[in-house]
Amino acid sequence: MRIYNTLSRKKEKFIPLEPGKVKIYVCGPTVYNYFHIGNARTFIFFDVVRSYFTYRNYEVTYVQNLTDIDDHLIEQAIKEKTSVPEIAEKYIAAFFADISQLGVKKADHYPKATEYIGEMLDMIEKLAEKGLAYEVNGDVYFSVDSLTSYGRLSGKKLEELRVGARVEENLQKRNPADFTLWKKAKEGEPRWPSPWGEGRPGWHTECVVMSRKLLGETIDIHGGAVDLIFPHHENELAQAEGISAKPFVRYWMHGGFLNIGGEKMSKSLDNFFLARDVVKKFDSEVLRIFFLSKHYRSQIDYNLDLIGESEQALHSLYMLLKDLDYLRIMDKRINYTEEVLESKNEFLAAMDDDFNTARSIAVLFDITRKARQYYNQQNPVYEEYLHMLVELGQVLGLFQNLAIKLKTDWDSYSNDLIALLVKYRDKFKEEKNWEMADQIRNDLRSIGIELQDTKEGTIWKSLK
RNA sequence: GGCGACAUCGCCAAGUGGUAAGGCAAGGGUCUGCAAAACCCUCAUCCCCGGUUCGAAUCCGGGUGUCGCCUCCA
User: Fold this and answer.
1) What is the CATH number of domain A300-406?
2) ipTM (interface pTM)
3) Distance A47 CA to B36 C1' (A)
């Protein structure tokens, strides 16, 4: 397997720290709001990463954090006239509900920032002891000048950051690029005691602490979208390197944005659609096809017409499974022949190459065509292809709850069908075609449905 | 201003030196009383200019255009 590593800007051979095991940490949501469909793209992609490693027989430990204390939560609590913990609780529940709707499987751990305050303080103290952090008026900052390697993940040079047009003005900081490790509490804000007075942790500390605690000092993959490279991941790396000589992350993976109208979708630009709303309009698997049809590091434009195309594409996959009656052979044990395994190998090759899902989906469609051809030729190899299609599709998170989806739910039609017959009978009655009207009533009775003409119209009862 | 990414059929999108995957749409056909659905078939030389090479969408240089990061943000 090869994975593009943001740190080296190259695809690198994937070698896990421990053979057969993969430790993945993906930055999760700050729970002050519902997440949008752009966030969902990242969650879905890493769901596939995890799923693929599992398929390749790796033992995966997947951690995603929940940031439940920061400025946004405090603001939102004021806006909603409630407390920070209640905001956190509300949007954590919403987060889980939404990822479930998206068909994203749960991570192994969801550490919350507020549960690791003690560990964060320990780390900040260690950084201070090493001269990498300093306190001013109850705030503690990380001193970027103390670390020569600062900027290597994002490819930034400190001098450039200094002259950059948009560096925040803060006279307390020795260097404007210094970032907050501990923030002094203002009146009425949530607070924890610390050696520097009451306050709360800065954002970048939690991920280092929780990652090290749950996965160890060195993890295999740390993920997120590109906007996290700087400053968030750069700052995480700085702290981790300040604390330990061991490498923090072996492979940094960053996904591209979901754009809208050619522009990045973001909460601050107010041009976003909430995932929970989008998933009401489109099946979660349609969204998967839509996202995975393009490489994860590319930008994707959110466009309803394009999602409609994905809907068509997914539909054709399901039509194949229905037409060729996959349900009938679902439980059949299959020994794949060489030819079918070749398709699998193509799929694996695509995924092994930095998770090229666009290519792996193309393999799915190739399989579809072959299955159909063999079926038309009445060659039983089609059964193998069908099984392979489902097996590989499920690695991408497609074909969830297949048995239910493929089964025709006649119950849901019965009311409508009887209503339809009643309507036709009414039409005949209107035309005084009593023969046809009576025949409908008699035929229905013969299959156990009795029509009764009342003042309110025709009702029906089951005789069974 | 600094740094980076991208530009492939009508649309979306793979392909990183050996002669252009796949999806959607479109056209033709099969089926049908007519349709719909489904199925089969067809459909690109890769933004521009120059260079390297036996050979480039793929490498190098120069344009043009789009986007991102440098600020909280997946």
Assistant:
1) 1.20.120.640
2) 0.94
3) 38
